[in-house]
Specification:
Four Helix Bundle (Hemerythrin (Met), subunit A); DNA-binding; mainly alpha; globular; Arc Repressor Mutant, subunit A; 2 domains; two-stranded antiparallel ribbon; 247 residues; homodimer
Chain lengths: 247, 247
Amino acid sequence: MTDQDTRLVLERLLRLRDRREPLVVQIAEWVGAGIVEGRLEPGQDLNSVDLSRRFETSRTPVREALMLLEQEGLVEMKARRRPRVAAPTPQDIRDIYQVRKNLLSMLAGLLVERADDEELAELRTRVERMRKLADGGDVDGYFWNHVLLQERMTEIVGNPTLKQILDSLALRTLMLRHLGLTRAGRLAHSVDDQERLLQACEERDGELASALIAGATVRAQRAVEEQLEQDGAARGRKPARGRRAAS
Amino acid sequence: MTDQDTRLVLERLLRLRDRREPLVVQIAEWVGAGIVEGRLEPGQDLNSVDLSRRFETSRTPVREALMLLEQEGLVEMKARRRPRVAAPTPQDIRDIYQVRKNLLSMLAGLLVERADDEELAELRTRVERMRKLADGGDVDGYFWNHVLLQERMTEIVGNPTLKQILDSLALRTLMLRHLGLTRAGRLAHSVDDQERLLQACEERDGELASALIAGATVRAQRAVEEQLEQDGAARGRKPARGRRAAS
DNA sequence: GGTTGAGATAGTGTCGACACCGTTGCGTCG
DNA sequence: CGACGCAACGGTGTCGACACTATCTCAACC
């Protein structure tokens, strides 16, 4: 998972282009990518002085970048307190996946209604590419194409409100999803899910597509939770938690 | 619809308390209430100089307040351009209601699962109060209690992610919903919908509750669209559109 | 008359300074 | 030995200034 990939995806998911000055975009991408990639740990302080020094700017654009990430749930800010990298609890993660499952169901139903044959063919091409990546065991490549696939689906459906909410939820689970995909056999299962979903779309069976994507989401969630539990057990032995922002 | 009511609801829906300095909160509430109440027209400029003069502050807290409202979809900001009051298109409104319908369905299902008898009794009290207000033709009173009812429901369900998304969607439709309720007979229909929903909850019928709230949302949307069309036709004759912020 | 461009105007983005407050480390007291 | 309080430190929120640019005005030109 290269930093560059992450930045490009962040730029789209956060709708940064043209909405903010390049300086703010740069900072938001660096911090956001850091959080997604795990370079910045949950709970870690993100003080604006350090960040402004790092980017050789004043604190104003730093504050703005952090506010952008706050609204996407990657950063937590309280008045007069130092901003921190968000630390979602297991319950938060369950809640997010629950909403995500529901909205993805909706998305699948709309996709069946609204995607024309050409668009479905494009999605088919994407899934085939993902199949190859999965067979080759390329977790990173598969991961990014997975993100892209869902992004494309929301575009095809053409409901910007829905897209925005799904993007926000996707962002919050980005690092988690990558985690889940590293589990043995998960890659193959995931690509199977995508193929079944696409087939249902091609057969114009909205009910089935909804059910399939809901099932796939539940399985993805389970993979993430199992992996988290495993990591948590491992980390229990050395519970280090940095407090200063990386400099 | 008093300004004070609006501010209190905004404060909760925007989660302002403790998240921002009082100064920022004050500005965000004034602008937000202005948009919801229609004092500030869609598309109107919100330049930070005028606003800072009005509140006797610098532009920094103004910018922060506007960013808060931007993330809730009440204000539109592009880099280097003046912020504007958001002007949702009819299509945007359809999209928002579509997502809202879906999430409210989910909410109803969860409510049936998770609300205990005591909580249902509390909701019953609220609905009865709303019945009285509806009978008395008190549009404003009914409106705010309606907002409060849904807020309470999301709290009972206990999924903060869902609550936050529903709150955000609620905000975007606040002024519209009030508009819809002014239509003849709409108040009575609305309270009927609420009673049916609550009854389904008391009978622990999740499927029915979901269906009912989905239906109610569709009807609310229709009322809003009809009222908008009517207003639009009326406004077509004198298409004034202020460009300066009120001062 | 309508279009185009230059100059004036007005508003945004960023900065460094400063006042205020949360935090931390240390000394004091029970 | 631990709880408490105090003072120094560090970080946040706000300000006024300034550079840059979108926007408006108006005049010259076709």
